């Protein structure tokens, strides 16, 4: 049996807590149903254990409200004494498992809870949800996940362009926004059974890139000891994808313009024209207009490419932001980074998803994918929690405060604790039950710490300023020289 990430226990019995501890990494205690509801919403547990004669309908309301927030269906066990006025079937009809209470029944409770967890885990892994990541019927061939207005518009353009005879096609957008994914989408919609050949124009020198694209004839330069077929020819009636077109050397830009105008090219050192039948897709993450103004990109080539450009929207833009959580779930479902692990990571907690939503993603979808895969690697349970979300590992390594000599000089546990508590309160909008759950401490402890550190909601900005100010005075640059 693999460990669950979190179990919420609504009981004061130490034996029940001990069983929960045995089955989960983290156990959260709630005194009553309303507190349980708040904790469930905050920590997205895998299982909730209720002990007592709770009316079935109250349990159902509590679970339904929490699952609405977490968008998860929750597994629940009720431990009821023989004198409970409610029958087992009433609970069972609501999908809640029932276990008798009593010393001699604890071994059985453990088995039931373990079986319920196992079944819930299995269900989470078996759900064939992949199609819900895609906007419409294009999902079958186009692996561009997203439901945002920006992706809907991009897909509309992709379909329009793919169905036309538009050639060449230009795709522009910031790094990591999915330009290559868009190029592949056009390719599979236009000619799925032909080759897709990609070439990165920034990766090769002018002469290498030329012979790579057009091929060369034997003896055309010193090391040309045999004929070489170029990528344009290999693409045939398929697609040639010219990635980072802005980096193509100017003299080669002139040769590419000729290909676009004449639909023919010559091998390096060759005299024969070869017909170019491929769809030419170029992409750039630079502002090509600016490149033209600064004379690094040919104006005539720019106009030739810019017939019906497809623009990829940055992830932080309001038109695409809603896809952050969906893309995170998509990468979680499709990544094979942890394929070797016996316990698959099957979900992400609500707090972790919210943390992802708050980030601005300068590296766009690629950065998001990296963060999710990193979290999958770090996570030891089946559910990615906030602590496994490390947006920038390099920044994190800088966290210890260093002096001029480069030595770590601030090991203040108190300061770290104060910061962590302030952050948890900030993240949960000062919901103390949720913040306590997040920190893994009781509400009483949280109240005591809030008092001890003089943290106040109305001076939250001041708390942050205070932390920032002390950061500024202490986070001196790592010794230069
Ligand atoms: N809509 C999407 N759905 C699923 N995966 C995506 C999506 N957009 C991008 N990705 C993934 O994000 C990563 C980056 O995408 P891609 O290589 O297409 O970006 P790019 O715009 O070409 O980046 P660069 O400018 O750095 O070359 C890839 O792993 C890709 O599979
Ligand atoms: Mg790319």
Describe this structure in words.
- The chain has 481 residues and is of the alpha/beta class.
- The protein has helices at 14-23, 33-43, 56-70, 88-92, 106-126, 149-163, 179-190, 206-214, 231-235, 250-262, 288-293, 299-305, 323-334, 350-358, 364-378, 393-397, 413-427, 432-439, 443-452, 460-474, and strands spanning 4-10, 24-29, 47-51, 75-80, 97-100, 169-173, 196-200, 215-216, 228-229, 239-243, 264-265, 274-275, 279-284, 310-312, 347-348, 383-384.
- The chain folds into four domains: 4-126, Rossmann fold; 145-312, P-loop containing nucleotide triphosphate hydrolases (Rossmann fold), CATH 3.40.50.300; 323-397, Helicase, Ruva Protein, domain 3, CATH 1.10.8.60; 413-474, Arc Repressor Mutant, subunit A (Orthogonal Bundle).
- It has 20 helices and 16 strands.
- Strands 2-1-3-4-5 form a five-stranded parallel β-sheet, with helices on both faces. Strands 7-10-13-6-14 form a five-stranded parallel β-sheet.
- Helix 1 links the parallel strand 1 (4-10) and strand 2 (24-29).
- The radius of gyration is 29 Å and the shape is elongated.
- The relative contact order is 0.09.
- Residues 396-410 and 461-481 have low confidence and may be disordered.
- The structure holds adenosine-5'-triphosphate and magnesium ion.
- The site of magnesium ion has 3 residues, from helix 7.
């Amino acid at each position: 049996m693999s460990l669950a990430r979190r179990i919420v226990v609504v009981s004061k019995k130490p034996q029940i807590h001990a069983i929960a501890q045995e089955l989960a990494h983290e156990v959260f205690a709630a005194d009553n149903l309303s507190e349980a509801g708040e904790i469930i919403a905050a920590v997205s547990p895998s299982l909730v254990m209720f002990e007592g004669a709770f009316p079935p309908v109250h349990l159902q309301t509590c679970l339904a409200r929490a699952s609405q927030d977490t968008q998860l269906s929750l597994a629940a066990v009720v431990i009821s004494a023989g004198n409970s006025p409610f029958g087992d079937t009433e609970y069972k009809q609501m999908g809640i498992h029932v276990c008798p209470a009593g010393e001699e029944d604890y071994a059985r409770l453990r088995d039931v809870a373990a079986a319920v967890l196992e079944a819930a885990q299995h269900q989470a892994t078996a759900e064939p949800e992949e199609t819900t990541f895609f906007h419409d019927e294009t999902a079958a061939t186009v692996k561009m996940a997203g439901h945002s207005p920006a992706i809907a518009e991009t897909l509309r353009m992709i379909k329009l362009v793919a169905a036309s005879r538009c050639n060449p096609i230009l795709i522009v957008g910031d790094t990591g926004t999915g330009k290559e994914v868009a190029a592949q989408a056009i390719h599979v919609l236009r000619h799925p059974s032909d080759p897709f050949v990609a070439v990165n124009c920034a990766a090769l020198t002018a002469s290498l890139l030329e012979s790579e694209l057009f091929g060369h004839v034997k003896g055309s330069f010193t090391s040309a000891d045999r004929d070489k077929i170029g990528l344009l020819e290999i693409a045939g009636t398929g697609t040639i994808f010219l990635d980072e077109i802005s980096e193509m050397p100017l003299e080669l830009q002139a040769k590419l313009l000729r290909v676009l105008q004449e639909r023919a090219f010559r091998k390096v050192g060759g005299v024969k024209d070869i017909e170019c039948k491929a769809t030419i897709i170029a992409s750039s993450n630079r502002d090509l207009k600016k490149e033209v103004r600064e004379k690094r990109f040919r104006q005539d080539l720019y106009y030739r490419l810019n017939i019906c450009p497809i623009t990829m929207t940055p992830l932080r833009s309001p038109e695409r932001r809603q896809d952050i959580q969906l893309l995170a779930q998509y990468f979680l479902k499709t990544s094979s980074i942890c394929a070797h692990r016996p316990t698959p990571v099957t979900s992400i907690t609500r707090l972790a998803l919210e943390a992802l939503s708050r980030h601005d993603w300068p590296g766009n979808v690629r950065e998001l994918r990296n963060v999710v895969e990193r979290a999958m690697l770090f996570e030891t349970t089946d559910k990615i929690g906030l602590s496994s979300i490390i947006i920038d590992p390099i920044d994190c390594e800088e966290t210890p405060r260093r002096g001029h000599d480069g030595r770590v000089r601030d090991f203040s546990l108190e300061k770290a604790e104060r910061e962590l508590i302030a952050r948890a309160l900030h993240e949960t909008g000062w919901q103390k039950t949720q913040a306590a759950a997040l920190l893994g401490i009781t509400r009483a402890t949280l109240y005591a710490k809030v008092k001890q550190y003089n943290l106040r909601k109305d001076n939250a900005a001041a708390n942050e300023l205070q932390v920032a100010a002390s950061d500024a005075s202490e986070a001196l640059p790592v010794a230069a020289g």
